[in-house]
């Protein structure tokens, strides 16, 4: 069954374009390791909630916005194999370190798709 890795990360508004330039460089690298698709999204309608919200989830400060993305795989075993190979790729590691986001506040997880209508 299709598997996805999803994430939300805080990025300074002033560095969104820089973030997406790096994301565009990384997408083919991830795909070369076997990822089926890579989706990175620019925040458009992500208000600060009173109790919960995307900005609250990653503790966005003034001038920061949350970006959301996901990658797809055939299944969990495929994801695990791809991740192992990709995390050993020094170019991916270098670009991840250059991305203008606070990885300590990023949230991420793996999910099995149950409904895909």
Automatic annotation (TrEMBL):
InterPro entries: Dimeric_a/b-barrel, DUF1428. It comes from the Bacteria. It holds the Pfam family DUF1428. This is DUF1428 domain-containing protein. It comes from Pseudorhodobacter turbinis.
